[in-house]
Structures are given as structure tokens and as C-alpha cells.
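Is this the right way to post C-alpha cells for a design question? Let me know if I should format differently. Anyway, here goes:
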């Protein structure tokens, strides 16, 4: 799966967007939202679980890492994205919120602790621990890429897929005196704790799961995204990068226009989950 693909907004996608919106509107009220406080690796955290349907059968799941570690509590945006992806895929979405943090870099370890808790205790939430994926949005894409490297280095939990949606991948060379990256402060200082995906050796990328990256032609991070994709490809890791045209307001998911998430990107992400985690009935 080595593919660099460019998609345009066509009538086919317009129809798919309409169908996705209608499906979510019809089924979103059947989702369940569960809150569970857990402790793992010394971190106390709140897991927010969005379950699609009411089956007690273990279900594939994805950890959703959004713009900020606590956006689930402070904004409806993150919850809506997780809910839409859970509804479209039929899988369980999990988000993590910290009970307390003292430094920015702890967010990385918090997200990784949540991933490991799911891998070890997911059955408590009817999660199929053999079918776990990771989705990162915006600056959360940087965090997702980092903790995917951590899981690959530890060979556990074994992820089936990582999806990076409009990721803000950072290069060390961009950090010059006085430069402040355009990225949420919660996720800013990743270099102090772990090599960033763009600086990782080919050997470190060898055991990564299939990676799908969604971006847009107008994104500031496309150079970094394409560079990361080439590194994954050259390391032999399965990768697919999809470039979307700039979206219009009517095409954007009705969450928050500033997020700039087109409906067909959400639909594609859900279909990718089903492709790699299997249909859930």
C-alpha cells in the first residue's frame, strides 16, 4: 500500500457526502457515551467512549487524539468528530482526558498510557483488543505518529492502522530562535521526550502499521507530510497519502468550520477503518 493520491471534489463525492450526513443524522442518537476513570502507568485519566449500537459483542475500536488533550471536556468539536467516525464505521471511539498534568510533554505519555490500557483492559468496554487503530486530528496527528512509534518499539499494543487527518507534523529545522510553531501548546514539546516521526531512522519505521494520511492542498504542513510518507515508503511501511482539494463551507462537516474537515474525508476515514479492522456485525 504505497500510494500518493489526489482527490477532487466531484459529483460522486458530493453524493457520498450527502449519504454520510444522512446516515449520521439517522443513527447518531443510537450511540452510547460512557465515561470511565482509569489509572495506568501512574496517570489518572478519563476515558470517553463512544459506542455505536448496543451489541455486547467485542467491537473494533480506535483511540482518537484530537487537537488538545482536554478538548473533549472544553469543546464539542472533538466529541462530534469521534461520534461521526464511530457512527460511520460502526466501531468504538475512545478519547482520553487528563485528570491533571504538570508539563506539556506528559500529554504524549498520557495518550500512550491510554492506548496501553485499551490493549490490556479493552474487554471491560467490549473492545476487541486485537483490532485497535489510532486516529489523530491536526496537532493530535503529531502525537498519534509519536505514540505509534512507541508502540512499534515496544511491539505492543499491536495496532492495525494509524490514520492522520490534517496532521501538523513538525520538523526540527523549523525551530529557529523566536519561532513559535502554529500548533496547540498541549502537544508542543515532543522533541524533548521522543524523536519525532520526521527524524526517526528507517529502522524505527519498520514495524509501523499501515498509515493513511489525509491532507489538503492548502495545508502548511504538506512538505512534512510528503516527506514522512516517503520515509515510510522507503522503510517498507505501508502508506497512503490522500490530498483533497480545498473545501467549501457547504462541504465541511457541520462541527466547526474552522476545523476544515470535509465530509468525504470523514467518510473515507471510516471506510479505511472498516477495510483494516473488518466489518462489524
Amino acid at each position: 500500500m504505497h500510494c500518493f493520491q489526489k482527490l477532487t471534489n466531484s459529483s460522486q463525492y458530493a453524493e457520498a457526502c450527502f449519504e454520510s450526513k444522512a446516515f449520521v443524522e439517522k443513527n447518531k442518537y443510537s450511540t452510547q457515551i460512557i465515561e470511565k476513570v482509569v489509572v495506568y502507568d501512574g496517570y489518572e485519566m478519563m476515558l470517553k467512549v463512544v459506542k455505536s449500537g448496543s451489541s455486547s459483542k467485542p467491537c473494533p475500536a480506535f483511540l482518537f487524539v484530537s487537537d488538545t488533550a482536554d478538548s473533549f471536556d472544553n469543546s464539542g468539536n472533538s466529541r462530534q468528530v469521534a461520534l461521526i467516525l464511530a457512527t460511520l464505521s460502526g466501531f468504538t471511539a475512545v478519547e482520553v482526558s487528563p485528570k491533571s498534568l504538570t508539563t506539556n510533554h506528559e500529554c504524549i505519555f498520557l495518550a500512550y498510557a491510554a492506548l496501553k490500557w485499551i490493549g490490556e483492559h479493552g474487554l471491560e468496554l467490549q473492545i476487541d483488543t486485537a483490532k485497535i487503530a489510532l486516529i489523530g486530528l491536526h496537532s493530535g496527528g503529531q502525537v498519534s505518529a509519536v505514540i505509534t512509534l512507541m508502540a512499534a518499539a515496544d511491539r505492543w499494543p499491536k495496532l492495525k492502522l494509524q490514520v492522520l487527518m490534517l496532521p501538523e507534523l513538525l520538523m526540527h529545522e523549523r525551530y529557529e530562535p523566536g519561532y513559535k510553531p502554529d500548533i496547540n501548546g498541549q502537544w508542543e514539546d515532543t522533541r524533548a521526550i521522543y524523536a519525532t516521526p520526521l527524524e526517526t531512522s528507517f529502522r524505527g519505521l519498520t514495524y509501523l502499521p499501515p498509515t493513511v494520511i489525509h491532507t489538503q492542498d492548502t495545508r502548511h504542513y504538506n512538505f512534512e507530510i510528503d516527506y514522512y510518507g516517503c520515509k515510510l515508503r522507503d522503510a517498507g511501511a505501508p502508506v497512503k497519502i490522500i490530498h483533497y482539494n480545498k473545501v467549501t463551507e457547504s462541504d465541511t462537516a457541520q462541527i466547526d468550520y474552522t476545523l476544515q474537515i470535509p465530509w468525504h474525508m470523514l467518510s473515507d476515514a471510516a471506510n479505511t477503518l472498516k477495510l483494516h479492522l473488518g466489518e462489524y456485525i
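Format looks fine. Someone answered above. Worth noting: The beta strands are 2-7, 31-40, 43-52, 59-65, 92-98, 127-137, 161-165, 211-216, 239-244. Helices lie at 11-27, 71-74, 76-89, 106-121, 139-154, 222-234, 263-277.
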